[in-house]
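Input:
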Amino acid sequence: MSAKTLDEPARRFEELLGPGSVITDPVRLRTYECDGLTHHRATPGVVVLPESAEQIAAVVRICNEYGLPFVARGAGTGLSGGALPRTDGVLVVTSKMRRILSVDVPNRRATVEPGVTNLAITEAVRDLGYYYAPDPSSQQVCTIGGNVAENSGGAHCLKYGFTVNHVVGLEIVTPDGDIVELADVDSGYDLLGTFVGSEGTLGIATKVVVRLSRLPETVTTLLAAFEDIERGGRAVSAIIGGGIVPAAIEMMDALAVEAAEAAVACAYPEGAGAVLIVELDGPAEEVAHQFGEVTRICRENGAFEIRVADDPVERAAIWRGRKSAFAAVGRISPAYIVQDGVVPRTALPEVLARIDGLSREYGIRVANVFHAGDGNLHPLVLFDDAEPGAGERAEIVSGRILDLCIEHGGSITGEHGVGVDKSRYMPKMFSDDDLDTMQLVRCAFDPRGLSNPGKIFPTPRLCGEVPGVRKGVHPLVESGQAEHF
Amino acid sequence: MEALHETGVTVHPATPDRTVGGVLPRWVALPESTDEVAALMRVSAAHDLAVVPAGGGTKLGWGDPPERCDLLIDTRRLLLGNGSTVEHSAGDLVARVSAGLALDVLDSTLSRFGQELALDGVPRTGTVGGMLATAVAGPRRFRYGTARDLLIGITVVLADGTIASSGGNVVKNVAGYDLGKLFTGSYGTLGVITEAVFRLHPIPADRRWITVERVSQAGAGHGTAALVTELAAALAEPSAIELDRPDPLGAPTLSALVEGVAAGSRAETLRRLMDGYGSALITAEAPAWWAVPPGADVLLELRVPPAAAHLALRAVAARGLPARVRGSVASAVLRVALPADVGEAAFAGFVTGLRDDLRELGGGLTVLTAPPEIARRVDRWGPSGALPLMRRIKERFDPDRRMSPGRFAGGI
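Output:
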């Protein structure tokens, strides 16, 4: 579709939203050409900045009139290209929808607009003794609307679960432009759970009701240094095997530690081949007991240094290196790919050894940072983009790591989403029938395929007519409950 | 029927004990694998047979009666691909389970490794598939969530015989749509669940219940509300907070469960808190009514925002029927049992009136089970703004309406 054919819808958007909320200037449009996955770029046809669900619904209805694809975007921190715009379509940016509509402590929930940042929710309720549990690393900037689309996790989801476990209600604009409320108190199919994690392909969340969690009585964070990753891995297995579910268990290998040191001078123990961060939270006595167990297990498995943090300042010092790890590798490598894959936790030692093998085979360094408790790997594949062929080799290593995850019964993404980046891997993880069945859901919500098309699924089939033979009048039509299907 | 027998699956005529909401199927099939279910579904599609999946039959009377039922698919002989009923990866705290497996068998398999599927309040003679299809959950939902929160992978057979899976064997996984969410609580209207993969938990080291009988009420329902709020926010972190009110005019009993390390001293903390509302007792065993439905014949489920639970209790009492209320008061999911002889008109008035009251509170009501003769005039499910979307999903998954037709919300 040429830019010209967007002129008329763009004028309609201006009438609807006011000229200040519609961007058509090519230079300004480029601001939105990518999300956190910067090597996929596409300049959106037009950008709109609505301020309400009604405005989003009206925008979507106009898109339907012209057959324009639309993509929703929050802060654009996604790492799978889920918010990659369409050059022939509309980018719906939620940055003007940043109000916390209500904080309701008796009901342990908050109602927020989709552009509110993840951390803003916690900041609004912390003094009341509550917080919002899912904590993706980008929580200072990422929006709750994006979290809903991606079913975001974070370091603490080992114990507390993902976005889907903490969202109790949604208001959505369907791909047809209807405003629909989905609530956990409703009867019928769990459309709330189905919508969360659908990466913008089933509509746009315009209001999010989240569950607030009580701040725990005690939090203790422990850092243990091991000579190598095998010893660290054995400690993780023993902790989980011992019936302890920590709030988080994170591991970094020597290369990741080196990068973090270079970036933020986190002063992790010298000579560590692996650093393990374990966070325990809950009732004081339980935490005290588990802390004893975890320290014993770490020592038994060869930890040569253990540090403990009991207050927020010390805790931040321990977490600083881990939280900076992705960006930090920029200090030790001109370019890098952040990978996100999952293996059963017990397969970690073997998979890490295989990643090491791939690294040697292709001459590409891989720094490993991972959520060890749930087997979620974030290998950072390092390369020099000035070196001919290095980028291609890094891509191969990155892809082979995903193959390893699939081979071990894991997943191609634990928290970053499929987006455009991994849709080609979906057929390796799922059969055609699996994917076609998922498409039934897509077609029920979005028969015209206008809502974030080209994401998740490699080759979406056309929805067309509902398959199957019709037999007489539908009972719902007959009873007057529905007009037509 | 010849075509059904040609699948090689054991099929026999249905006996009167296999009725579904009063509807007698023509045949019962006992498939032993997902492939056999698929073969049955293909034959059913070719011959326009209406199908109802069933497990232990503990909740087969729930939901509306099916409009028709030709074939009952009994899942209890189903095996996984490797010929077993459970693939337990103890080190990963994950288990793949056949949908036909009885929960008590699963419990004993997992407990040998000190692990459990943290879902209570479900009859243990019932199957995994039945539990998922009805989305039943019990007291520990307050800490662990419900089936949809613990389910990490699912395999289903659709109306046309297509076998589909989503999720997988790992807890953390966001690849593709989560069909498990869609099928959990779908009452057999989208397909047959044949396998499920669950996240497991370590069995807590210790447990204590702290119970106050006849919570003192400073103003009707007020004492209960205050105590529930305090318990839900308690730093001793109870796993469950349950209420039982046998008589609409009486004061309720409240009981909280503390699990894990130091359960004894944490229970003591809660006892001190609860003592202000009556005489609190700590026990190592659950109260007799714990996780038991308040009735079997006429059973409703009320759901409201947590802080409105006491208002829901008041609304039930105001309806003037001898309603027993029990359930997860901190999550505000309560069950209401009425006598079997409540009568059609009284039942309809109760459901309609209470539903209106709950809507005012931001909640809803579902009739889980009630004999057809008294429930004829009521909508068992209640309204939902998302019904048009639900109908579109049904239409895509089962265009010919052969999967448990008419059993679900909005006549789905």
